[in-house]
Structure formats: structure tokens, C-alpha cells
Design brief:
Layout: E1 2-3, E2 17-23, E3 32-34, E4 37-40, E5 46-49, E6 54-55, E7 67-70, E8 76-80, E9 86-91, E10 94-100, E11 113-117, E12 123-127, E13 136-139, E14 162-163, E15 169-176, E16 180-187, H1 188-193, E17 213-218, E18 223-231, E19 236-244, E20 249-255, E21 263-265, E22 270-273, E23 279-282, E24 288-291, E25 314-317, E26 322-326, E27 330-336
Antiparallel strand pairs: 1-2, 2-27, 3-4, 4-5, 5-6, 7-8, 8-9, 9-10, 11-12, 12-13, 14-15, 15-16, 17-18, 18-19, 19-20, 21-22, 22-23, 23-24, 25-26, 26-27
Length: about 350
């Protein structure tokens, strides 16, 4: 692994980083972090270690899956068609069961699915198996529905689900009619005790009720970092903010100098934005301080991307300040140095 300078002339606030190329037989189909290895579940759970070693279990799943998520303990994974209705839950290489989601506008926004392993060893599966607006938590191993209820849900298209690192919260960054982007965050222990809390009409207090948030990512402690858009007839302005889940209010917000898509929180001073290519962005100024223009990470701003080309595989590991991008011939891994 060799350290490489940032492309172009970085402004103050840029960070040292290491960049590594992992050669693969062809383009990977999906990417998930599992310890210090990158796994391609869609491509047959091939494992690419950062030391160059490769393990191929020689299994293949014959369907047009194009994305995947993996549980933190590496046991379970879900293969899915990101703009389709079909998913597949695996325990290792073994099929546990098929998954599905509502067909309604499924071809417009990312399949909502996430996995989290509790300290007890139970793995939670979050998805929308029956209706686009009904979020469910299940026991991954048994399929037991843990959030059964019969109340009316909020009319929101859930998408891009993610658990907080400690599993306390579950975020959804989807959309509602007309359409506009919308994000919501749920308390997981409360949802397991009172499933109706998953259908609250109040999306997020203190930040436009979650409306116009194009992307969210969990930060330190109880914070959520978000990208927000304000559109006028002639222009659009993007903002980067920090929201306290405990205080239910915005702690800080700055104007971004460029549009922002998917986010990864690096530290209190930086996030990486993955709209078009990875960019290191200052959380205090909204300025891009570093970029990797040779890495294509797609043109999706929010969850509605049915009109866009499928983005390359992308795997984020905020705990270790690194991300990986699939290319035509390998995997590019960028690790940001601690300040």
C-alpha cells in the first residue's frame, strides 16, 4: 500500500490518505466490508483481502441482483435488485429465504434493506416486505416478524435504510409525493416494544420534518449528518448539516459549494460526499478540500435514481475512515489518516 497525494491542489483542510488497488478478474458486482476484507456477495461471496489474498467459495446466484448489504458480524447478507422487487437472504453461502418489496414505483428508488447484529447475537433484518410505506423488523434467522401492527402508516417511500453503528437507530432516506426527498429516523428498541412508532407522522422534528433531505449518515454519539436541498425556479442550493437525535434539533448547517449525494462521516471536521466522485468536504465551511476525480461513484443525489445509470459498487467503512469503489478491473480503497 502506498500513500498518494490528492489530485489537484488541495485547499487547507485536506487530509493525508493511503490508496490501494486490489486487482480482480473482472468488475465486481457488489461490495461490502467484512473486517479488513471486501466481499462481493452478488458475485458469489468472493472475498478480497487487503493483503492481496482472495477467497472464492465458488457459488453463484442466477439472477440480476446488483447490490448487497452484509450484517456487521459477516454472517448474513442480502442480495437484491436495487431498482426491482426481488432480494435473497443468505446465511454464509446458504439461502435462507427469498425477499420481496412492493412493486409500486420500485423501479424509481433504491431497494430498502439493512442488517444489524445485536449484542445478543440476533441479527435484525429491516425491509418493506409488503408495502412501500410499511417498515418492518424481522429476525433474520427465523423470519419472525418483530413489528406486527395494524395501524395506518405515514405515506412515505422508504429507501436507503441504515442502522446506526450501535443499532439504536434506523434511518430511512426516501421520498414522498410530489415527489420530494424525505428522511426519517426510528428508535429501534422502542420500535421492538411499540411497533406503531415506525409509522409516526412526524418524520424529523427541527429540520423541515425531514423533507428535502437528500442523504443522511450517522455521526458521532447521537448525531445524524444530512445533505439538504432548497430549490427555486432557477436554481438549487445544497446544505450540509448536523442533527441531534437526542435534542431533536439542528446543531449546525452550512451551504455547500457543490451538490452532495451519499455521505460518509469521517470526523467532527469532515465528510466524504460521493456525488459523481469522492470528495472530502469541510463540515464547517461546506467547501470541497480534496477530491478523487478518477473514481466514478455515480450521479445519484437522493433515492430516486431510476432515470440514471447504475452507479459502480461502493462500500463505506466510517469506523476505519475508508471507502472502496469498484472499477472495471479491480477495487480502489482509500483510507484517510487520523488527524
Amino acid at each position: 500500500m502506498s500513500r498518494q497525494p490528492a489530485q489537484g491542489t488541495p485547499v487547507p483542510g485536506a487530509m493525508d490518505f493511503q490508496r490501494q488497488t486490489l486487482k480482480t478478474p473482472g468488475a465486481v458486482s457488489s461490495l461490502c466490508w467484512s473486517g479488513d476484507a471486501l466481499v462481493d456477495p452478488v458475485g458469489g461471496l468472493v472475498r478480497y483481502h487487503l493483503d492481496g489474498a482472495t477467497f472464492d467459495p465458488h457459488v453463484r446466484y442466477s439472477y440480476r441482483f446488483d447490490r448487497s448489504v452484509m450484517s456487521p458480524d459477516g454472517r448474513y447478507s442480502v442480495l437484491y435488485e436495487s431498482l426491482g422487487t426481488t432480494g435473497l437472504l443468505l446465511d454464509g453461502t446458504e439461502v435462507v429465504r427469498q425477499l420481496t418489496r412492493d412493486f409500486y414505483h420500485a423501479d424509481t428508488h433504491d431497494y430498502p434493506v439493512a442488517l444489524h447484529t445485536l449484542p445478543s447475537g440476533r441479527t435484525l433484518l429491516a425491509h418493506c416486505p409488503e408495502s412501500y410505506c410499511v417498515l418492518e423488523l424481522e429476525d433474520a434467522a427465523t423470519g419472525e416478524r418483530l413489528t406486527k401492527r395494524d395501524n395506518l402508516p405515514t405515506d412515505i417511500f422508504h429507501s436507503r435504510l441504515q442502522f446506526s453503528p450501535d443499532g439504536r437507530h434506523l434511518a430511512s432516506a426516501g421520498w414522498i409525493w410530489h415527489p420530494v426527498d424525505a428522511a426519517s429516523v426510528f428508535d429501534v428498541p422502542r420500535a421492538l416494544e411499540a411497533p406503531a412508532s415506525l409509522d409516526s407522522a412526524a418524520l424529523m422534528d427541527g429540520v423541515e420534518n425531514g423533507l428535502f433531505l437528500t442523504s443522511v449518515a450517522f455521526g458521532a454519539k447521537d448525531t445524524l449528518v444530512f445533505a439538504r436541498i432548497e430549490e427555486s425556479r432557477d436554481d438549487a442550493t445544497f446544505f450540509l448539516g448536523t442533527y441531534s437525535l437526542t435534542e431533536r434539533k439542528v446543531l449546525a448547517e452550512v451551504t455547500l459549494e457543490e451538490p452532495a449525494g451519499p455521505l460518509m462521516v469521517v470526523d467532527a471536521e469532515h465528510v466524504v460526499d460521493f456525488f459523481e466522485h469522492p470528495k472530502l468536504v469541510s463540515r464547517s465551511t461546506g467547501r470541497v478540500v480534496q477530491r478523487w476525480e478518477d473514481l466514478d461513484t455515480g450521479r445519484a443525489l437522493g433515492s430516486m435514481r431510476g432515470h440514471l445509470p447504475t452507479p459502480p459498487p461502493l462500500a463505506l467503512d466510517p469506523a476505519h475512515r475508508r471507502f472502496a469503489v469498484g472499477t472495471a478491473s479491480g477495487i480502489e480503497v482509500v483510507t484517510l489518516a487520523a488527524q
